[in-house]
Amino acid sequence: MKLGRFVISVVAVCSATGGPHYKTFDGRRYNFMGKCEYVLAKDSNETFMILQDSEPCGRGKATCTNAVTVNIQGTIIYLRRGENVLVNGANVTLPYSNQGMNIKTFKKRGIKITTDIDLIVEYDGVFNVFVKVTNSYKGKLSGLCGNFNGKRGDEFKTPKDKLVQKAVTFGNSWKIGDSCPDVESVEEDPCKNASKRAQKAKEECSALKKQPFSRCRKALDPNAGYIKDCEYDVCACEDNPKACLCESFAAYEEACDDLGIEVKWKHLKKFAKCSKLKYIELK
């Protein structure tokens, strides 16, 4: 993948999307409804660290990303929903380039950070975050994104390298500071006791099986977690299901992009509600 003056051969992607649903570098999926700031990913040499700040979205227990902090060799980049990009506390104009990194706009409202340390960070400006790395970090990572050692069974390791079984225990262990309470449990499927909303979610999320998304279906089955996550989020986002639906579409689009398959959908009339989405609607 050639980006600016950097050529990065991405081999692994971690994502935190929607309510939030995590997919680790090694491909393990789990849900964690944290309402604090957490270490999303960091490397053992302390070259970089990425923090994810989550807040409640909707009236249930679901939470969504509202800010991302990226520390690259001491340079602090702060990305917050609907606000300007800060580098070491100062507003910067994009595109911005300095000390082995480029920051530019990404798909209209998002931000993409590319670096010369084999790392890409993308925040779509709403709920979705993507961290992309090369093989140079194999077995050297930790945080909510997992350890990138090629095994899905040992992803849930705490900062003390203890393997735990529950996503909640794992997620809480990566919390920054003690100002926020620990999450006590994973919220049960919000569609379970919401028959009308569940039916609506099922109908709307089925769009991932149809054109234009279906051109990616052979390479990436939408039933491999994407539709389930979509339905979950539409049910959970009681006060703004539109934002959650659109972000589910965007998450699948980005996963397809990573496979080299471009899916153009926002310009279509049936998705007009997504292209017109404004930050004020998401708060």
Automatic annotation (TrEMBL):
Keywords noted in UniProt: Disulfide bond, Glycoprotein
Coiled-coil regions listed: none
Pfam families recorded: C8 (PF08742), VWD (PF00094)
A cellular-component GO term for this protein: extracellular space
Record-linked InterPro entries: Mucin_vWF_Thrombospondin_sf (IPR050780), VWF/SSPO/ZAN-like_Cys-rich_dom (IPR014853), VWF_type-D (IPR001846)
PANTHER family given in the database record: EXTRACELLULAR MATRIX GLYCOPROTEIN RELATED, HEMOLECTIN, ISOFORM A
Protein name: Uncharacterized protein
